[in-house]
Automatic annotation (TrEMBL), chains A, B:
The keyword Transferase applies. It holds the Pfam family ROK. InterPro entries: ATPase_NBD (IPR043129), ROK (IPR000600). This is Glucokinase. Belongs to the ROK (NagC/XylR) family.
Length: 325, 325
């Protein structure tokens, strides 16, 4: 049995997992990232976590096929460079080269959302499907697409920022410079904004207490929804509808077999997906709809780790296939 | 020098061209399709056209690498089957097998729009670009995307029906079963519909004469635009804006380097593309916009033939690469 290590690198924590070739998570370790210590410190810590995982399983570096790292921000997966990650304060860090030298095994990197969706495609809700489109809903909204086992990159590894498709009628300025982007509605931030605006306009809701205490979160809106609060239901229905509009574009253009919704579970599930499904039937040609299944992600917590490991394995297999020619 | 034949199979005419490996059209022949004679008759005629082209260039079948056929409707390019083409009255015709046997050379088929966009990507407005998204505007609107020399198919070879993305605020029923599809606005049919509705509502325009004579066409609207007619300008501005909305989704999701606009030239050009460009700046994140060029197709008339020939060549090269392993 050979193994991979998948590393989910975040601004707060690093989670690393030993994964076998059946994409099963064997061991997992977690450490604070300590961004302030600089990239070399963080990469050395990641190398130590790899050793720790091998030790836990009584393995040596020879048992390790490769390491995959899911990085936040803009990543060049071909060069193995973390191009820009604001929450790590990283600019053009050669992760694959530096970490590869520390570990003595090939290191492959990609954007964290692409890694998560790759994991769902290989071993989660999209397993066995030819084309898998995955969306993660958290502070923002991001997406990636896996086509016959390969991530779709487009030009400059930028394709698929579904969160920045502009929704007609929406006017909220987005961090990207546009107005009314999908993620200004469909995200934890977007849900809280909708609630805040309605409460400021005087709407009645059980959310007012949390709002006035300055504590309003998307989780409060979900709880209020479950208690039958009309405002919360309106907000999550509308959020689901806007998600449906975005997915209508994705489904028509990518034609996936499976759409996986991942990210913060409080926002997903039938609270928003009922109105998403209704919108899809109005906005997507039946030829596509008859052929696509909308699913909740199966790897939520370990998706980044398993996806990074699966990505590393697929890169090694690709290199082996090329060198066998 | 080796050659390909590209065949553009339409409901009215068959156009076949002898194309060299630099994608230059050496000879071209045209014949009526005669759909009523049945598929075997049409395929035999195509085989004769291939012989005619070889004879014109004093070549034999040994000089021919392969034949590519761009078919209307739904095509399975892997099986080589024309699955459904309403204007040919064809259902599940094994074009690659039958025509291949008649010609004695490999025959590859795909949908006609995909062939045209493949041609633009290999040898036209998208030459040298990594990712090319092409849109044809005619009676309807269709699109295809070429990614590193390969067509993007999605599941069941259906991806990318940009003409059937629903545009908010539009309500016109579409042949696909939805309402307000992009092609109900951005197409010759859509332009005539917009003009007809405005004239029926009493709008003044120099288009009224052609309308009352029952002769109104998209070409009339273009001519009226050029003469400064306010209604025609409004219609083509709006048409361009709606095209911009659709392309905003394509550009965000596919992240192309080049977008090629092909099809009926009367509709394209700056008459509609000025407002398309304006809409794109409002609806597409600058990271994509800085990286994409909007171009008019360069192969308009011979695009289907050259694209089909280029596609056949790429399939043969792919097969040679696989068998060399």
């Amino acid at each position: 049995m050979r193994y991979m290590v998948g590393i989910d690198l975040g601004g707060t924590n690093i989670v690393a997992g030993l994964v076998n070739e059946q994409y099963e998570l064997v061991h997992k370790v977690k450490q604070p990232t300590e961004v302030a210590q600089g990239s070399d410190y963080v990469l050395s810590k990641m190398a130590k976590m790899v050793d720790e995982l091998l030790e836990m399983a009584d393995l040596t570096r020879q048992d390790l096929i490769a390491v995959g790292v899911g990085c936040p921000g803009i990543v060049d997966p071909i060069q193995g460079i973390a191009v820009f990650a604001s929450n790590l304060k990283w600019n053009n860090i050669e992760v694959s080269r530096i970490l590869g030298e520390k570990i003595g095994a090939p290191v492959f990197i990609d954007n964290d959302v692409r890694m998560y969706v790759f994991g769902e495609a290989m071993s989660g809700a999209g397993k066995g499907a030819d084309v898998v489109h995955g969306v993660t809903i958290g502070t923002g909204l991001a997406a990636a697409t896996v086509v016959h086992g390969e991530l779709y990159y487009g030009s400059k590894f930028m394709a698929g920022e579904l969160g920045h498709v502009v929704i007609e009628g929406e006017k909220t300025p987005c961090g990207c410079g546009l107005k009314g982007c999908l993620e200004t509605v469909v995200s934890a931030t977007g849900i809280v904004r909708q609630a805040r605006e309605a409460l400021e306009a005087g709407r009645e809701s059980i959310l007012r207490e949390a709002f006035e205490a300055g504590e309003l979160s998307a989780a409060h809106v979900s709880m209020a929804y479950d208690e039958g609060d009309a405002l919360a239901q309106e907000i999550l229905d509308y959020t689901g509808k806007v998600l449906g509009k975005g997915l209508a574009y994705s489904i028509t253009l990518y034609s996936p077999d499976v759409v996986v919704i991942g990210g913060g579970s409080a926002l997903a599930g039938d609270r928003i997906l009922d109105s998403t499904r209704k919108t899809l039937t109005e906005m997507v040609y039946s030829g596509y709809m008859n052929n696509v299944t909308l699913k909740i992600g199966e790897l939520i917590d370990d998706g980044g780790v398993i996806g990074s490991a699966a990505f590393a394995k697929s890169r090694v297999e690709k290199m082996e296939a090329v060198s066998a020619k």
